[in-house]
Amino acid sequence: xxVGADEARARFLEVRDVRKAYGAIKAVDGVSFDVxxxxxxxxxxxxxxxxTTLFNSILGQITPSSGSVEFCxxxxxxxxxxxxxxxxxxxxxxxxQVFVKLSVRDNLIAAAQEFQGTMRxxxxxxxxxxxxxxxxxxxxxxxxxxxxxxPAGSLSYGQQKLIDIAMAFMPTxxxxxxxxxxxxxxxxxxxxxxxLLVTLNKTQGGSFVVxxxxxxxxxxxxxxxxxxxxGKVLTEGPPRTVQSNPRVLEAYLGN
Length: 255
Hints:
Blueprint: H1 3-12, E1 13-22, E2 25-35, E3 40-44, H2 51-58, E4 66-71, E5 74-75, H3 81-86, E6 89-92, H4 104-113, H5 119-124, H6 132-141, H7 157-169, E7 175-179, H8 187-204, E8 207-211, H9 215-221, E9 224-229, E10 232-237, H10 239-243, H11 246-253
Parallel strand pairs: 3-8, 3-9, 6-7, 7-8
Antiparallel strand pairs: 1-2, 1-4, 4-5, 9-10
Helix pairs in contact: 4-6, 4-7
């Protein structure tokens, strides 16, 4: 990769030597990587390899013990999730984060309402906060039109997962970190979910970092894959290169 390409990657998301220790346990141990604008990066690794702790360290759920995270040239290390969201960084969690009593449409509106204008303008705004058209577009994209008016909690787990992901994209973030989007999803919906993410990447131009245990999903979705083991980056590169690496195979087969 050329110096110019390296600089372009660093100007978007740059993670440098991030560490998170709990006493003698090094959950994340000196992880560094870059994400380019518009890039989809996959993060794989056996259970306990530090993937979610890395996400939480980047996204303000926990404060890293050391290291730095820069986004678009700004040091965002240790900023709160709300501050990061206002800078255009979104995420999904392993567990669902939907409002079970709200309708699908209202869930999507609620997800973006915080970032719509000022407090005064939100108080004076229409009931949908001016977000109705965008919510409807997301409902169409995620094929949720037939359940748009139903409470989210009345739907299947897979449908709630789609709502959860759609909510992350409602504020039109520039970067989204997705933590196991396929977990609990019916295998028949996995390919549909991959196609949705590809469409969102193309239409919104955002960058994604995806943690996922479904190797086939990651290898088809992500042009660049990082493999973590015991809190460290074991290897990274194109999917075929990572997938065929003997050390990666050993890490998975050993678990």
